[in-house]
């Protein structure tokens, strides 16, 4: 009988340890599930934050794009304002010259007046970065000159600009008008 009691005690201990093991496994599984749920919630929060950050960044970029587009339109509308304002006195001088020509009996003062207005205009344009291009006598360069025609010339003028039909200009070292030239052949 003692053997039976020992056997029952051993079974009970085995069942208790098995139940304790099952409880530990269940507890571990519950903790694992809770950890997974917590990790999932954390990932959802991070996703929501990233999505919010993306939407804010997109809105900020859209505002930037609109603002720069508006500024560009304003700049294009007023780009020549400074140059035009600087040329208004020249326009006034031309008006005065035309009035003076109506009543002038001597041509010499009128010529001097027109030459002064021309010099004033050249000075204003030079101060704004306009530079005339020197083409006559220079070697022909397709990047600077527009060859209108060629004429027979001596060996020393072959491939060089013989005559300039229309002057070329630089604006801040960039060609804004090519010189129309006659090239020696």
UniProtKB/TrEMBL annotation:
Keywords: Chaperone, Cytoplasm, Stress response. Residues 1-28 are annotated as: Disordered. InterPro entries: GrpE, GrpE_CC, GrpE_head. GO terms for cellular component: cytoplasm. This is Protein GrpE. Homodimer. Belongs to the GrpE family. Residues 7-21 have a biased composition (Polar residues). GO terms for molecular function: adenyl-nucleotide exchange factor activity; protein homodimerization activity; protein-folding chaperone binding; unfolded protein binding. GO terms for biological process: protein folding. It is found in: Cytoplasm. HAMAP family: GrpE. The keyword Endoplasmic reticulum does not apply. Participates actively in the response to hyperosmotic and heat shock by preventing the aggregation of stress-denatured proteins, in association with DnaK and GrpE. It is the nucleotide exchange factor for DnaK and may function as a thermosensor. Unfolded proteins bind initially to DnaJ; upon interaction with the DnaJ-bound protein, DnaK hydrolyzes its bound ATP, resulting in the formation of a stable complex. GrpE releases ADP from DnaK; ATP binding to DnaK triggers the release of the substrate protein, thus completing the reaction cycle. PANTHER family: GRPE PROTEIN, GRPE PROTEIN HOMOLOG, MITOCHONDRIAL. SUPFAM superfamilies: Coiled-coil domain of nucleotide exchange factor GrpE (SSF58014), Head domain of nucleotide exchange factor GrpE (SSF51064). CDD domains: GrpE.
């Amino acid at each position: 009988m003692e053997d039976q009691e020992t056997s029952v005690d051993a079974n009970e201990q085995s069942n208790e340890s098995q139940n304790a093991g099952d409880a530990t496994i269940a507890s571990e599984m519950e903790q694992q599930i809770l950890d997974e749920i917590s990790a999932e919630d954390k990932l959802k929060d991070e996703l929501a934050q990233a999505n919010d950050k993306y939407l804010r960044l997109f809105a900020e970029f859209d505002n930037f794009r609109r603002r720069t587009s508006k500024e560009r339109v304003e700049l294009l509308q007023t780009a020549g304002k400074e140059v035009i304002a600087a040329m208004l006195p020249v326009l006034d001088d031309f008006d005065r010259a035309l009035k003076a020509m109506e009543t002038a009996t001597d041509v010499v003062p009128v010529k001097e007046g027109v030459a002064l207005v021309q010099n004033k205009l050249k000075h204003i344009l030079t101060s704004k970065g306009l530079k005339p291009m020197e083409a006559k006598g220079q070697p022909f360069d397709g990047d600077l000159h527009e060859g209108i025609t060629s004429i027979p010339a001596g060996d020393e003028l072959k491939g060089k600009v013989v005559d300039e039909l229309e002057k070329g200009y630089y604006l801040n070292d960039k060609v804004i008008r090519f010189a129309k030239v006659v090239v020696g052949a």
